[in-house]
Each structure stands twice: as C-alpha cells, then as structure tokens.
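User: Hi! Is it possible to get a structure for several chains at once, not just one? Here's what I have:
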Amino acid sequence: NAGVTQTPKFQVLKTGQSMTLQCAQDMNHEYMSWYRQDPGMGLRLIHYSVGAGITDQGEVPNGYNVSRSTTEDFPLRLLSAAPSQTSVYFCASSYSAGQTEAFFGQGTRLTVV
Amino acid sequence: GQQVMQIPQYQHVQEGEDFTTYCNSSTTLSNIQWYKQRPGGHPVFLIQLVKSGEVKKQKRLTFQFGEAKKNSSLHITATQTTDVGTYFCAGQNTGRRALTFGSGTRLQVQP
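Assistant: Yes, the chains can be modeled jointly so their relative placement is included. Here is the combined structure:
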C-alpha cells in the first residue's frame, strides 16, 4: 500500500525560483493538508482541502498556492521562493477533517538559498 | 486563533524512568490526537480521544483527555530506547475543519 506519496524528498532552490511539491494518496480520502515543520515550531498548517475543487487557507498560507482537481492529488506551489520557506514540508490525508487518523507522507526537505 | 501548547519542549530520561508530556489548548477541543515522529521520519498516529475525562492505554502509554476538553497528557511508563522521538498532540476545535498541532515534546532516552 502506497499511502501518501510526496515528491521530491529533497530540493534546493534559489531565491525567486518557483516549484511544485507533489502529493498523492491512494486511500480515497477526501481531506488533504499541507504542513511545514520548523525547529521548535511544531507542524503549522499551510493549506487544506476538504474535497476535489475545495481548498482553504491554514495558519501560514502566504507564499503558497494549492489546487485540488482530483481526490488523489494535492500539489503545493511556491511561486517565488524565499529563504524563509526553508523547511520540511509534510502532506497528510485523512477520511475526514480532523476527526480521524491523519496519514503523513515522508516529507520534502526544502532549502532556499 | 486556536493555540495548542505543549510542555516540556525537551526531556532527557534514563531508560526505565517515566515520562509525561502535557498539551493545553486555548479553546475547547472536539477531540485530541497524539502522534509520534521518530528522528528523520514523519508523524505517525498513536491515538484519538473524544470524550471528556477519557483515559486510554496502549501498553506502556497512557493518554488522558481533560474534563473541560482543553488539555491532555501522554504518560510513558518505564521508557525504552524505542520511545525516542518527538510526541505531538493535535486538536480540532469545535468550529474549524482542521487539526492544530502542538509544538511537540522531544524525548531522548539514555540506555
């Protein structure tokens, strides 16, 4: 079982570059979310989606865009990378929003120089 | 907005000692979840508590949800080196369709 798959695992970007972090799940979960993890800050919610075509902002949405065209995929776009976006990014999915177990991907370690 | 605080941030124990981490929310929670993240890994779900005053056990781990549904704790009895990692609580408040994570407690166990 694949679960939640994130790509790439590691990425180095230059300031101002754009990129998309991919996230796919094969569990037919309606709810998907993106978190960033910084030392001492825990996991902070960037964006989330409660189903295909529906997205909403989390705690730290600035500098990130998302879309949800299918149930399976929930990509995260950085339009113009900044050093402050250096972090570890986790995608998660669950059957319902916050009421059932969340399954996390392996994470993407992003460095912006 | 909702805040979920966890203490301590870090704890170093000798193998065999007990360990407790506490989670406090600024708002009433509809439920609370606990996750464990091994070094270099991703968060993995441990348990969910829903009822006021609920207590659940998983082998050496005991989870409690406060009567007011604003705090929770995780207690590990007789720690082992396999318990090493960061423990996060995560709560959903009654009005928001998202999980808010605490800052985590990093546990180090010395053999």
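The interface with chain B takes residues 31, 33, 35, 40-45, 48, 50, 56, 58-59, 90, 92, 97-107 of chain A (CB under 8 Å). DSSP finds no helices and eleven strands in chain A.

User: Great, thank you!
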